Amino acid sequence: MKDNNTVVIIGGGFAGVELAERLLKNDKKVNVILVDRNNYNFFPPLLYQVATGFLDVSNISYPFRKFFRNNKRFSFRMGELLQIRPQDNKIILNNGEISYSNLVLATGTVTNYFGNDNIRRNALPMKTISDAINLKNKILERLELATRTSDASERMKLTTFVVAGGGPTGVEIAGMLGELRKNILSEDYPELQNCPFDIYLIDGLQTILAPMSKASQQYATNSLKEMGIILRLGQVVKDYVDNVVHLADDTTIDSSNLIWTAGVTAQVFPGLPEKFYGRGKRLLVDGQNKVQGSHNIYAIGDTSLMKADPAFPEGHPQLAQVAIQQARLLASNLTLIDEKKRLLSFQYNDKGSMAIIRRNRAVADLNGPVKHFNGFIAWLIWVFIHLMSLINLRNKITTFLNWLNSYMTKDQPLRMIIDPSDKTSDQ
Known about the structure:
Layout: E1 6-10, H1 14-26, E2 31-36, E3 40-42, H2 47-51, E4 61-63, H3 64-67, E5 74-78, E6 81-85, E7 90-93, E8 96-99, E9 102-105, E10 110-111, H4 117-122, E11 124-125, H5 129-148, H6 152-158, E12 161-164, H7 168-188, E13 199-203, H8 214-226, E14 230-233, E15 237-241, E16 244-247, E17 252-254, E18 257-260, E19 264-265, E20 283-285, E21 297-299, E22 304-306, H9 320-338, E23 352-358, E24 361-366, E25 372-375, H10 376-389, H11 393-409
Parallel strand pairs: 1-2, 1-9, 2-5, 9-21, 11-18, 12-13, 12-18, 13-14, 20-22
Antiparallel strand pairs: 3-4, 6-7, 7-8, 10-19, 15-16, 16-17, 23-24, 24-25
Helix pairs in contact: 1-9, 5-6
């Protein structure tokens, strides 16, 4: 499969979809091939709500083929990248090969277990749709098991939750678990009314939400403590064996539920030399997001490490806004290359960051006249921005309606255990 002007994009997340849209809109001569191991785009910032049963998978995901259906210069290949052959302008997938004029790597990151196989095998990550569904299934299955066991210590393990990682994802899922404990679990599981449902949030730093302002950190800390979340800061999880979480200070927590949000890493692509990579396995790129040492391979978003932006000499944070802005600039630059015009250099416009903590409580650090919001106003800002960031109108409407129902009832009837690996027939 080859065309004189074919841009192949690996990865259909924020960066990949934004780049495909912009190229198809701005350059009528380009053909775009999007490659992803899934056939849908999804919205990672809301995965934790799928994992806790407050949103349905369809609220935050949408098929690529449906989204780009009306553009004849777009094609999609569901597959996994196995190798890049720069000398041949070709990529090898698990189901074929594709030639390219320009290759763009927008693969994002994967969960980082820091080399600990016990944690990798036994913890519950939350990086993909499959992770979120599995996490919801496991939590509900263990709660059901807790209702049946007569062993008090086993029941305690099954109903204790440990969240590793004090970034926005960890804070948000800890807060959502706190909402579940407060409003739902005792109602749904009357057999467990005497269980404390302990929730721990653990981070190696001395504060949660480390990239955010001190005001946001303090507000989030106080809000979580008010909910009864147990914070263990300045600690890292060093092992997880037999449903026991081992911390660096040699203390332990008995829990069947270690939720892992403690780190991410980029991916290494066979065919690209080791010198192309920097910190966190991120590809080193120049100011136009071209991979250093290549002539027609680009990397955008979380998988790239750019040090050419004067405001971010050590590289940009791995955030959605960075990915989207890099995709927009690269789309413009690829068109300028075709027109033999001077290329633009990337400069990140930092619009701020935010995190939701619980119902009516969030924090927002913005680059405007007012730098910090918290509480209900920040919660409203968070709701609006996340709704508007969903990929299409359908997702915006269904998510809004689900949130409205959850807000009015403090509940959501989405706590079904649906395991696709279960081969038993319906009875």
